[in-house]
Amino acid sequence: ADGGGRWPLRAEVTGFNRLDLAAExxxxxxxxxxxxxxxxxxxxxxxGLTPRSRAVLRLGDVEVTDLPPHRRGVAWVPxxxxxxxxxxxxxxxxxxxxxxxxxxxxxxxxxxxWLDRLGVGRLAxxxxxxxxxxxxxxxxxxxxxxxRPRLLxxxxxxxxxxxxxxxxxxxxLRTHLAGFDGVCLIxxxxxxxxxxxxxxxxxxxDGRALQDAAPAxxxxxxxxxxxxxxxxxxxxxxxxxxxxxxxxxxxxxxxAEALPEGTGALAIIAPEAVSVHRSRPAGSPRNVxxxxxxxxxxxxxxxxxxxxxxxxxxxxxxxxxxxxxxxxLKDGSEIWTSVKATEVTLVAL
Length: 349
Prior knowledge:
Number of domains: 2
Shape: elongated
Number of helices: 9
Largest sheet: 6 strands, mixed
């Protein structure tokens, strides 16, 4: 039985990756983590392709663990797209349908429809060597979706693309995944991408699930310093004390909402919550440090200022160009920074 064309996912993964995964049909899960966290190994385990990890896998009512990869109803788009070099874009896209016994004319019709949908229909006759990176990625995606998979695995689908093409393919992915009846796992190095594409973000570290939550929750309360920094937050590890955090690198933070003493925690501070001053600020901020400007970079209409201090870890502040002019900021400027206790979020590790 195929569950009426909708296939929930249940997987128990052992070996290097140790985690249980369950998802309802139509769910897109972004898998993020540093190099070596086990992201690609997880995908290969679900495909049945790696001795490092093994997945007991159910798709809908079907136990597929003992089936070879090509009979699992799983489509995989590796980082390079892995198109067949000797076949045209159309023949590549029709391949999965033909392998399942769909008549040639019908398979080609459906393949052409998928290529049209993904904006590369006019390239149907071209071979992979005649396609740009973005075009090849779209054809690879068309091939995967045309095969009507129950589980779709995308390994860094946007990594090889330039910024403009990446934005276009991301939009196209969002559009087509919205109507997908199976479960989709997308491996990405980029938490910003993960947050924009997925219903859930699975953060891996050493093969284990460090966090599995909605994008908004991962953005607000990242449980990994790496994810926090990739999302542009300041993330300082430490140990909870009465009313604050004793920082791993030395120094102390005052917070409004403390955790039980002795708890290992991550202090998350948004760059826009960091105030920059020419002299020591008077008044109420509880966390005040002297510092030196190390780098100023433009991000959209604002500036990001990297600050080092003998009394605190490296800190990024986000300010307006007007504020930077008023403060006469440049590399090497000696300044003061402050953060209100209410602007520090502690996440227990």
